Amino acid sequence: MKEFLLLMMSIIMLHNVSAQSDSTGLAFSFNGYLKDLNTFSFPIQQQKSSYTQLLHNRMNLKWTSTRFNASLEWRNRFFWGDLPKQDPMLARHLENANEKIQFPIVWTRNKNSLLHTHLERAWIEVKQKRWSYKFGRQRINWGMNNSWNPNDIFNAYNLLDFDYEERSGVDGFRVSHVLGEMRTIEWAGAFLRGKEITTAIKYGFHTKGVDWQFLTGVYRSMITFGGGWQGSMGDWGFKGELQYFGSHQEQGSLFNGSMEVDRLTPNNGYLYASILFTEEGLKKTPAIWTDLSFQNSPLKLMPAQWNLLVGFRKEISPRFNASIGLIHAPFVDLWILYPSVNFSVITNVDLDLFLQSFFGESNDSFGVMGHTLFLRGKWSF
């Protein structure tokens, strides 16, 4: 409790001095949020129901100027309740923290609670007329799609992890150069554990109403290359990404590809659909559904090889939004339904309700594999 009170005092003090600048034009800003997430998991194949609560705080410090930018961002999370190893929210956070060179601090009070602090971003950026250099812990996002991103070889993420909006980062560098009108080239690299490195060069340009990108490099000692596009067909947006990874030692070559369409509908609606092929994914129904892993990597973006997605979002009123998504893995016979509603209580305070329902075949019959209900309150400052 003492740590929590100190955290709240720090937030208030930093918030009071944010958005200031000096005579050199260097501006300082501070923002973040505090979230309370309640998770109710219902039985999955004879397992017990569980309840987990998470206090999630994020704080972002940024310095900006004409030629120099810097950022320092971290988050603090306090879990308590039922914390089984297979809990997807808890396992996802802690496993992702160990994927890269990270500096988390974990205090384990007992088997039913855990306090975790993690440095999320720590980078500096120097900008010139056509060049920019960025070093440190950052997010290198090369994806063009909204749902699945085969081109994002640095920061693959879980589509169902709604509580991690900023997504993970890497310790690395990024050098960007503007070649001309709507033409850029970028070189980036990330340092991973075990002296492994991912590095690649991306070339992007725009022609005839379509944005294109092509990239090539090395992912964990595997040669990789791919490309993506973003354009439109009438009223529909049309995007796609393709990525190939060359063979390395015992691991064979593999290919990932995704295409996506979307459009705005009358009365503030947004409709989208996507298809994903990830070669390392499952090709048939698993024997044990609880072993299904959503710990994604650039080599495996979903548990199943083929995945179809359709979704719809709508602003019902200025304070109320609703969405629904459906994922189907046809050869695995997996269905995931995930509706959500968002209500803006007052300025900077939101209340959200999420449901994730899994359906599949078990013991030669199709049925519900489990439901997880999330209730979240969020204060943004």
Task: Describe this entry's structure for a reader.
This protein is mainly beta. It has a single domain (2-380), classed as Porin (Beta Barrel), CATH 2.40.160.10. It has two helices and 21 strands. It has helices spanning 2-16, 88-97, and strands spanning 20-21, 27-41, 50-64, 68-81, 105-110, 113-127, 131-138, 170-180, 183-191, 197-207, 210-219, 222-233, 236-245, 254-265, 269-278, 306-317, 320-329, 334-337, 340-346, 349-362, 365-380. It has a 21-stranded antiparallel sheet that branches. It is globular and about 60 Å long.
| The CATH architecture | Beta Barrel
Give the overall shape.
globular
The major beta sheet can be summarized as: 21 strands, antiparallel
Class by alpha and beta content:
mainly beta
Strand residues, percent: over 45%
- Mean pLDDT equals 86
| Oligomeric nature of the chains | single chain
Give the helices and strands as they follow along the chain. Answer: HEEEEHEEEEEEEEEEEEEEEEE
Helix content: under 10%
CATH topology: Porin
Low-confidence stretches: 1-5, 95-102
| Tally of individual domains | 1
Number of strands: 21
Q: What is the rounded Rg?
A: 22 Å
Intertermini distance: 21 Å
